[in-house]
Amino acid sequence: MKHLWRVGLLVLGLALLTACGGSAPAIPTPHNKIDGNTISDTALQGVITDWKADAKDGLIVGTIKAETIVEESYQSSSTLDEITEYYNKALGNDGWIFRQRTPGTQDGFFLGAYEHGTTTLVIGIIDLRAFAGTGTYVYVVHGTK
């Protein structure tokens, strides 16, 4: 009887989370991440810098709260197609919706946007072989409304 109020508070909290859409959807972990690699090609560095800024600005224009934005980038030993397949499968199984208005795969690049409730996720992948490298560069950014 003494702890009954705690159980009631817990049930109320869970009901509120459910009414608000629950917890944030899971973002898949990096796929075949390579530690310690840096990109030395200055042209590619410029492309990546511009790409990150555009993706982040696009989220804010799309009503994502700037303070909720989380960015991650990494290099992977996987191919562009393997990484794309990995994210599409993981996100599709978790209820994310791919936004058809994003370009998808084109000429060694992938750019896709996904939505799950109030969360938006953008994934950009560059095939580093186009820049005399190996593997891929992956940029993941997400935030909530």
Main β sheet profile: 7 strands, antiparallel
User: Helicity, in percent?
Assistant: 25-40%
- Strand % is 25-35%
Distance between the termini: 40 Å
Shape: globular
- Determine the structural class based on helices, strands and strand pairing: alpha+beta
Radius of gyration, Cα only, in angstroms? 19 Å
Number of strands: 7
- Give the averaged pLDDT, no decimals: 80
Order of secondary-structure elements: HEHEHEEEEE
Number of domains: 1
Poorly predicted runs of 5 or more residues: 1-21
Specify the number of helices.
Answer: 3
Can you describe this structure?
This protein is of the alpha+beta class. The protein has one domain. The protein is 34% helix and 28% strand. The protein has three helices and seven strands; from the N terminus they run αβαβαβββββ. The chain has helices at 4-19, 42-61, 80-93, and strands at 33-34, 70-76, 97-98, 104-106, 109-116, 119-127, 136-144. Strands 1, 2, 3, 4, 5, 6 and 7 form a seven-stranded antiparallel β-sheet that branches. A hairpin with a 2-residue loop joins β4 (104-106) and β5. The longest helix is centred in the middle third of the chain and has 20 residues, at 42-61. It is globular and about 40 Å long.
Question: What descriptors fit this protein?
Answer:
single chain; 145 residues; alpha+beta; 7-stranded antiparallel β-sheet; 3 helices; 7 strands; 28% strand
Summarize the structure.
The chain has 145 residues and is an alpha+beta fold.
